[in-house]
C-alpha cells in the first residue's frame, strides 16, 4: 500500500517539478509510511469496535467487562452506579471493578465495602476503561488538569456537568481524548431519568452505544448534536425542579383551601404521574388533552384563565431561557 502511494507521489513530483533533492524524496517516502501506519491503526480500531458491536448489538455484557472510575461520588454518581451494579441485569458490574474518588470522605458512606477507594482523581482513573466526571462544573478545570498529566489513551471520559463542552475537556486531556457529554436528571436516582448525550469525533459508534446503554439502564436517553446540549438542560435536566415547584404550589394551595389530608402529597404526585402517562400514551396533542379536561364555563376553565392572565406559558419560556443562558455562561468559564 505504502509503495503504491510513494510511486504516485513520485510521479506527481517528477511531472510538475524539474529538480528534486534526494532528501525531499526521502521525506515523501517517510510521510507515506506514517500515513499508512495511521490508517492501519484506525482500521484496526474500527474493526475491533465493529466486532464488539456485532456480538453485543444492545450493549449486553459489555459493561461488565469494563473497569470504571467515578471522580465525584455524590447523588448522580450513586444513581449511575446503581444501574451498573444492579444484580437483576445480565451485565451487572462487580463492585470491585468500580473505583471511587471524592474529596469529601462522607460521600463514601452510601457505598458498600466492595468498591475501590482511590487517593486522588489520577489514582482512580489510572486503570479505568471509562472515567465518569461526576463533579460540579466549577471543579472541572482542577480535576482535568490533574488527569491531563496521566495516560488517557484508550479511555472514555463521560462528562455529566452542565455547560462543560467536549472541547473544554479535550483542551486538558488532549485532542485525541474520547469524550461523551451527557446531561442526566435527578429521577435517574429511581431509574426514571432522562439523559441527553452527544460525543466528540474520537468516540466510535460502539463506544457511544456502550455509554448510552449505561444511562438507558436508569431511564430514557436522547441523542443530540452538541449545539443543543445547553438548550436541553432547561427541558429535561433542570425541569424536574419546575415540576416539584408545581407540586408544592398545588399542595400549598390545597392546604390554603382548608384540605387536611395525610396523603395529599401522594395524591398530587400520582395526579402528575397519571397526567404524564396519559400524555405519553395518547395520540392527541397537548392542546387537545387540555380541552379534554376543560368543560365550557367549568372549574378548569376558570383556573386556566388565571394561569393565562398571569402569563404562565411566557413565564416558563423565560425561565427556560434563563436556564440556557446560565449554561452558556458556565461554558465560557
**What's the number of domains?**
3
Q: Quick one: overall form?
A: elongated
CATH topology value of the largest domain: Rossmann fold
CATH classification class of the largest domain? Alpha Beta
Helix tally equals: 13
Q: Evaluate the radius of gyration.
A: 26 Å
Major beta sheet, specifics? 8 strands, mixed
| The CATH fourth-level homologous superfamily of the largest domain | NAD(P)-binding Rossmann-like Domain
Strand content: 5-15%
The overall strand count is: 8
Q: What would CATH call the architecture of the largest domain?
A: 3-Layer(aba) Sandwich
Mean pLDDT: 86
Weakly predicted, low-confidence segments: 6-18, 34-60
Helix content: 40-55%
Would you write up a description of this structure?
By secondary structure, this protein is of the alpha/beta class. It has three domains: 2-55; 63-229, NAD(P)-binding Rossmann-like Domain (Rossmann fold, 3-Layer(aba) Sandwich), CATH 3.40.50; 237-332, ProC C-terminal domain-like fold. It is 53% helix and 11% strand. Strands 3-2-1-4-5-6-7-8 form an eight-stranded mixed β-sheet, with helices on both faces. Strand 7 (193-199), helix 7 and strand 8 (219-223) form a beta-alpha-beta unit. Helix 1 runs antiparallel to helix 2, helix 8 packs across helix 13 (312-332) and helix 9 (239-256) packs across helix 10 (264-281). The radius of gyration is 26 Å and the shape is elongated.
Amino acid at each position: 500500500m505504502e509503495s503504491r502511494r510513494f510511486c504516485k507521489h513520485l510521479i506527481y513530483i517528477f511531472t510538475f517539478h524539474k529538480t528534486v533533492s534526494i532528501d525531499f524524496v526521502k521525506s515523501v517516502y517517510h510521510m507515506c509510511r506514517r500515513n499508512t501506519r495511521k490508517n492501519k491503526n484506525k482500521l484496526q480500531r474500527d474493526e475491533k469496535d465493529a466486532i464488539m458491536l456485532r456480538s453485543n448489538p444492545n450493549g449486553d455484557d459489555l459493561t461488565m467487562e469494563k473497569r470504571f472510575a467515578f471522580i465525584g461520588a455524590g447523588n448522580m454518581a450513586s444513581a449511575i452506579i446503581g444501574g451498573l451494579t444492579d444484580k437483576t441485569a445480565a451485565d451487572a458490574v462487580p463492585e470491585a471493578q468500580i473505583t471511587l474518588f471524592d474529596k469529601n470522605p462522607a460521600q463514601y458512606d452510601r457505598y458498600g465495602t466492595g468498591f475501590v477507594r482511590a487517593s486522588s482523581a489520577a489514582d482512580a482513573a489510572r486503570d479505568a476503561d471509562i472515567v465518569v466526571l461526576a463533579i460540579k462544573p466549577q471543579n472541572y478545570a482542577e480535576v482535568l488538569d490533574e488527569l491531563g498529566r496521566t495516560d488517557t489513551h484508550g479511555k472514555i471520559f463521560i462528562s455529566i456537568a452542565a455547560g462543560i463542552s467536549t472541547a473544554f475537556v479535550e483542551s486538558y486531556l488532549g485532542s485525541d481524548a474520547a469524550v461523551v457529554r451527557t446531561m442526566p436528571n435527578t429521577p435517574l436516582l429511581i431509574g426514571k431519568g432522562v439523559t441527553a448525550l452527544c460525543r466528540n469525533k474520537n468516540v466510535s459508534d460502539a463506544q457511544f452505544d456502550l455509554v448510552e446503554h449505561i444511562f438507558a439502564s436508569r431511564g430514557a436517553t436522547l441523542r443530540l448534536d452538541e449545539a443543543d446540549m445547553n438548550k436541553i438542560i432547561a427541558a429535561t435536566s433542570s425541569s424536574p425542579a419546575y415540576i416539584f415547584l408545581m407540586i408544592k404550589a398545588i399542595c400549598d394551595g390545597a392546604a390554603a383551601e382548608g384540605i387536611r389530608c395525610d396523603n395529599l402529597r401522594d395524591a398530587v404526585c400520582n395526579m402528575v404521574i397519571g397526567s404524564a402517562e396519559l400524555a405519553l400514551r395518547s395520540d392527541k396533542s397537548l392542546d387537545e388533552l387540555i380541552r379534554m379536561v376543560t368543560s365550557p364555563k367549568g372549574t378548569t376553565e376558570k383556573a386556566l384563565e388565571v394561569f393565562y392572565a398571569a402569563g404562565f406559558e411566557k413565564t416558563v419560556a423565560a425561565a427556560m431561557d434563563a436556564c440556557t443562558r446560565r449554561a452558556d455562561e458556565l461554558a465560557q468559564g
